[in-house]
Amino acid sequence: METQTSEAEKEMREWCVALPKVELHAHLNGSVRNSTLLELAKELGDKGAIVLEDVKDVIMKNDRCLPECVRLFDLFHILTTDHDTVTRIAKEVVGDFAAENVVYLEIRTTPKNNEAKGITKRSYMNAVVKGHKSVEDVDALLNNEKLSCTPMSDLGGDTKRKKIYVRLLLSIDRHETTSAALDTVNLAMEMKDQGVIGIDLSGNPVVGEWETYLPALEHAKELGIPTTIHCGEVPNRKEIQAMLDFCPQRLGHVCCLDDEEWKKLKSSVIPVEICLTSNVMTGGTPSLERHHFADLYNAKHPLSICTDDCGLFSTSLSNEYYLACNSSGLSKTELFRLAQGAVEFVFADDEVKKSLRAVFERAAAERL
Ligand code: 6MZ
């Protein structure tokens, strides 16, 4: 019986990997491989800039509560903040998503100034774009290049080159001032022809005030740049109301809503980026079984399954689909429709959507 279960699990996990997938909520620095972080830590340790043993423990231990995540991000930023390293992680992260048949990736990152290292928000982003351009063994489509109607076998096969659309969202961090947030929106506008297509608001949810970022988010709206907002990672009535009233194109997480807010969210039909493992680990939801995914899914609310920080939470998009299926008892057909539905919420233009729809139609014809 045990063998049967593990066989069934194995088959389902493989199916989730082969499924073409759309990733809409992934933070660059949260998606770095542990092996890369350890290698970078060793280099800095050799230079005497950090104590390797301390850092190693922090990277490898399992505590991923919210305060611990914030501490880890501070550490990751020490390890990854120079142009060459940013380029390296940007390249690796795209390769890793493509390897598990993600066909469209919106990767988000916070443009960073670091005067001591000669880094500006613009040069940081140039380093990210350089990384995306140097992805090897994968066709990374960064601008308006076309993704041909690729059959599922091409997407899943080991021997053929994978194809992945890559688009960028610039994150405003909740520590930032209004003026810094406005700089990020203006940078997004300047970098439109380099695959930047949206703005995100993220960072430590217990820091900062909504009013600080609102002018920048309004500015993005005026410029026609889509926004997605981390909402309700912790209970904060006033802020959650304001975020729902702002009506961004998408919302991330939405864990700690009260009855009134759930009603408001559902009637808004704003698509939600669901991050199962992240929400359980950071305590936004008590367990997978009690995650709001099932309620929103049953209410037919627009949803997309995402990883948030696949490095930090040791997960993958395929694993998140597997967990969604396991915790809510979805069939393969339902899971497929869920993956396919995410195409409608991408920030990329209609041309891209059209080719992604074709990818899923082909996959459906071949497999279901
Ligand atoms: C809020 C998060 C986050 O931008 O340096 N970030 N913000 N909630 C989360 N849930 C766990 N996960 C990641 O990527 C790391 C940054 O993304 C945001 C934080 O601001 C973090 O510093 P980048 O590439």
Entry summary:
Strand 4, helix 8 and strand 5 form a beta-alpha-beta unit. Strands 1, 2, 3, 4, 5, 6, 7, 8 and 9 form a 9-stranded parallel sheet that branches. This protein is an alpha/beta fold and 368 residues long.
Walk me through what this model shows:
The protein is an alpha/beta fold. The protein is 51% helix and 14% strand. It contains 16 helices and nine strands. Strands 1, 2, 3, 4, 5, 6, 7, 8 and 9 form a nine-stranded parallel β-sheet that branches. Strand 6 (227-231), helix 10 (237-246) and strand 7 form a beta-alpha-beta unit. Helix 1 (2-18) packs across helix 14, helix 2 (34-46) packs antiparallel against helix 3 and helix 5 (83-99) crosses helix 6 (121-133). The longest helix is centred in the last third of the chain and has 18 residues, at 350-367. The two termini are 27 Å apart. N6-methyladenosine-5'-monophosphate binds at residues 27-30, 69, 73, 109-110, 171, 173, 202-203, 205, 230, 233, 278, 282, 308-309.
